[in-house]
Structures are given as structure tokens and as C-alpha cells.
Amino acid sequence: MRIRPSAQASRLFCFYLVFAVSAVCTTAAQKHTSSNGTGAFTTGHYRSLFREGGHSQPRIDAKINAAFDQLFHGDPNTQAIYYATGKNADGPLAYITDVAHHDVRTEGMSYGMMISVQLNKKAEFDALWNWARTYMYIGDPKHPSFGYFSWSCKPDGTPNEETPAPDGEEYFAMSLYFASARWGNGPGIYNYKAQADAILTNMRHHPVMSGPTKFGPRTVGSMVNEQYKMIRFVPGIGRGDFTDPSYHLPAFYELWSRWGPKPDRAFWAEAATVSRGFFPKATNPLTGLAPDYANFDGTPHGTKWNPMAANFSFDAWRTASNWSVDWSWWGKTDGERQLSDRIQKFFLSQGIQTYGDQYTLAGHELEARHSTGLVSTNAVASLAATGPQAKQFVQALWDAPIPAGEQRYYDGMLYMMSLLHCSGEFRIWAPK
Q1: What is the pLDDT of residue 239?
Q2: Residue 65, SS3?
Q3: Is 315 known to be catalytic?
């Protein structure tokens, strides 16, 4: 015979049941919050380092607008790096050029797209993407680089090489996901999400393919090393298997682990964790400087074709910005804050208005040019830095003129993106 419990016992049973369910839900929520970190992805708050430095929002907006207007629509001979170049069946076309080297790079095209989506400039975004798809994309299934983008082309669209550079593909994919979230998807090449999914899938799963190109035979594989879960410097077989610290973008990888193709989400989550652990291995423990190229264990990787590969040079300027944006968006490892303090203290010791732009990792100056691009990325490091020097680096960016002249491409791209980061206007655009 079943005995009916008393009313009080029933109430106690219900209380404990509710308590237990609540505890389970709370624990699950805590785990979810923890996996999302403590940064802007979770809080929705993006620091404005310029506001913290005492600059008003109207002045910040004016500075950003002036930089965009000059770099995208200024004097074509001395200021602009963005050039409209007619139309095709998919609409207007435009490219961004490395003025000093007279070429168009996936790096600059994808940076231009990222700047455009952050500033809600859909016309410029679509024109750049159309040019990249028209002239840079390799659509021949028999080509060894099928599905990738030629990393360098002439302004008339003729390729200078028919192999890719992963930093371009990474920024193409991320900017397309943001465009999908901000503007919605259109037909064909303007189905931004489908295009981003295809790029990410190809980056990881591109088979090893050999065949002729306009520049001789090539063998090309995937852009990631599966063993180390890291991005490669290039996917070309025979060029050596190593990485570039400035290609490591854990802030993006976290988003891909949520929004990217489902079979690869676990991989990108692991890649984000690996990159966070890689940064301290790749940087000098005293200066915080990273090399342009590195082995997967973090040691510098020298090459015959780039004598600066094992030093802190142009690629490496971006590395501190990458780990600092990761801290700002995710807040998952305090080690990134220590790295920002370290590298800023080093450059402060070199003279904040005069430091050079190329160094050995131990801190010996190799080039005395004080470059706006490096000034810009050092300011972004303040998103993670804890020391009082951080405000000086932000003010140095604020005081820097908009890049013009022969070096306006790379300096200008980093300047523009750094203005957005330091104003809190470089944001995660999430699917609705």
C-alpha cells in the first residue's frame, strides 16, 4: 500500500526539488558565462580609450570620419588608398592598393572590408568584395589554390601570385560574418554568411593539390596545422611549415567556434586557446616583442627570402593588437594583460615619440623610422594594459596625423582600425 505523504512533507519535497533544479540551472549558467569569458562579448561594453583620455564623443566621431574620408575618398595621388574602378554584373568594383608596392593585397582588401562593415559603409564593402571575388578568387577546381584568393594582384586585376596568405582569408571571413549580421544576406556573392562559411571550410579542409599556375607548378594544402591547431604562414607545400604570430586571431576564432560551420566549431575553440598560450611563447620575456615568423613552439623562424623574419618587423606590429582585442572581447587570460604592459614599457623606454619600427627581439633597434602603423597598434595594446603608461600610447595615436604619402597604405589601414578599437567602435556584430 502506498502511503500518501503529509502536506508539509509535500511542500518540503517541492521546495527541495525547486532548489535542486535552480542549483543545476545556476551551475549551467555559470559554466556558460565562464565559457563566454568576461569581455565585451558577454557584457556588451566596449571601452572607449579616447573617452577615458578626456576626448568628447563628437571629437572622436570627427576624427574617425576624417580618417575614413581621407583614406577612402581623399586625393587619389597623395591621400587615398581606395579606388573605384567601374562595374560588372555584380555591381560596382573597388580596390585598396599598397601604394609603395603598386599592388592589391588580400590583407588590405579584407581590412578595408572590416573597416567598412564597422562604419556601416555597405557600398564600399560590396565594391571591395566584388573586386576580390572577380580578380583574386581562384575558382578553377583543377587549380592547386582552388577556393583561395591570390594574395597579390596588379591594380588591373592580373595576379602577381596564385597562392594565398591566411591573414587575408581570416579577415575576409570575419568581415563577411559581421556583414551578414549587420545587413542581412543577399544573392550570389552577397550571401555573406554562405561566403564566409565556404572560406572557413576551405581554410581547414583544402586538400593537398598540385598543378600548374602562371608562375610555375605549385602544391597547396590547408591553412591550418592540425597537429598544433595553429594558422600557417602559407599553405603552400615546400615553403616550410611554420606560423606568423600576427596571424593568430583568437578573438575571431571564438566567434567562429559559435557561428562557423558546425563540424569545425570545436577546432576553432581549441585554436583560440592554443593561440592564447602561443603569444607568451613567441614574445621576448623582457621586451614583449614577437618575430614576424615563428615555429609552432614559438621560437623565431628565419627565412632566406625575408631577412627580418626572425625579428620584430612589419607583420609583428599587429601581434600586440591581436592579443589585446582578444582580452577586450573575451577576457579569458590575464597573461594578455601582462604582455601588453611588457611591450608598452619597452617602447616607453625607447622614447614614446621617437622609437623605431624594427627591432631584434631583445630590443636592439634595426630601423629608426617612427611609424604611424606601430604607434597605432601600440595604442590598441592599451585595451589590455594595466600600467599608467597605457594612456600615453592612446594619446600618441590621437595626436598622430592621418597617414599620407607613399607609406599611407599599411600605416593607414592600421591607423584606421586602431581608431575604431580605441574608440570602442570596432564591435562584434552577432547574428540575430
Answers
A1: 86
A2: helix
A3: yes
Choose among 59, 83, 85, 82: nearest CA to 71: 82
Q: State the Cα–Cα distance between residues 371 and 313, nearest whole angstrom.
A: 11
The grid coordinates listed for 253 are 576564432
CA distance 9 to 340: 59
Question: pLDDT value at position 173?
Answer: 99
Catalytic residue among 264, 315, 326, 411: 315
Catalytic residue status for 336: no
Q: Which residues of the chain have pLDDT under 70?
A: 1-34
pTM of the model: 0.92
Pick from 369, 377, 368: nearest CA to 413: 377
- What is the percent of the chain where pLDDT is above 90? 91
**Cβ pair 62, 72 in contact under 8 A:** no
Which string of b and e fits 376-386 if b means at least 16 CB within 10 Å? bbbbbbbbbbe
Count of Cβ atoms closer than 10 Å to residue 153 Cβ: 24
Q: How far is CA 359 from the centre of its chain?
A: 23
* Collapsed DSSP state (helix, strand, coil) of residue 315: coil
Residues 126, 258: Cα–Cα separation, whole Å: 25
According to the model, what pLDDT value does residue 83 have? 98
Residue of 98, 107, 169, 411 marked active site = 107
CA pair distance 383, 419, nearest whole angstrom: 12
Q: 105 forms bridges with which residues in the sheet?
A: 152
Q: What share of the chain is helix, strand, coil (3-state, %, to 5)?
A: 50, 10, 40
d(CA 97, CA 80): 9
Query: Could you tell me if 391 and 382 are in contact, meaning their C-beta atoms sit under 8 angstroms apart?
Result: yes
Which single residue is written with the C-alpha cell 502506498? Answer: 2
| pLDDT the model gives residue 172 | 99
Q: Which domains does the chain have, with CATH numbers?
A: 48-79+242-427 (1.50.10.10), 81-239 (1.50.10.10)
- 210-225: per-residue pLDDT in tens? 999 999 999 999 999 9
Q: Is 44 left (phi over 0), alpha (psi -120 to 50) or beta?
A: left
Q: Which helix (H) or strand (E) holds 104?
A: strand 103-105
